[in-house]
Design a protein that fits this description.
The chain has a domain at about 50-175: Tetracycline Repressor, domain 2, CATH 1.10.357.10. α5 (about 75-90) runs antiparallel to α9 and α8 packs antiparallel against α9 (about 160-175). The longest helix is centred in the N-terminal third of the chain and has 26 residues, at about 1-25. Helix content is about 75%, strand content about 0%. It has about 180 residues and is mainly α.
């Protein structure tokens, strides 16, 4: 039953996301993921392999979900940064998974094909906006992307005024300077 398999995989990924966010890779337990997802451990191993491969699947899913939920628009980078900030506030467990990747795996997840493609797509959106004169080109597109993403992760426990401050900062960073 393809529908049942897809539903089971989704439940496992959701439970694994929560488990990895709370405990990291080393502290996560497959038996807790199985219990939370209503699947058995054998099914988890069948679908995802070992615990590290399950973490990879969670990480990849987060990247794809982020790209789908918060698409970048090169002509509105301040708005993109603000939407990313909103997204991180709504889904803090996803940012925690990324932190665990950095802490326990030296950011191995950041080298995955899905991450490289997402980064390339975002960088190209910025570079295109720079070529069209919509975004200042004093910084390389990749550097600008890194700065925007880092700003979007700040002050997540701050009031909504921080969101506006991020928009202002990105606007100042990206507005083309007149000669």
């Amino acid at each position: 039953m393809p529908g049942d398999a897809a539903s089971t995989r989704r439940r496992i990924l959701d439970a694994a996301t929560a488990e990895f966010a709370a405990f990291g890779i080393a502290g996560a337990r497959v038996d807790r993921i199985a219990a939370a997802s209503g699947a058995n451990k054998a099914m988890i191993y069948k679908y995802f392999g070992n615990k590290d491969q399950l973490f990879d699947a969670v990480f990849d899913t987060i990247v794809v979900q982020t790209m789908d939920d918060v698409p970048i628009t090169g002509d509105d980078l301040p708005g993109y940064a603000a939407r990313m900030w909103d997204w991180h506030r709504r889904r803090p467990e996803l940012l925690r998974v990324a932190h665990w990747d950095r802490l326990e795996r030296d950011a191995a997840g950041m080298t995955a094909d899905v991450v490289r493609k997402a980064t390339a797509d975002k960088t190209e959106a910025i570079a295109t906006a720079q070529r069209h004169g919509l975004v200042d080109d004093a910084l390389q597109a990749a550097t600008l992307l890194t700065m925007i993403l880092e700003l979007s992760r700040t002050g997540l426990d701050a009031p909504g005024t921080h969101r506006a401050a991020i928009e202002t900062a990105v606007r100042r960073l990206t507005t083309p300077q007149s000669s």
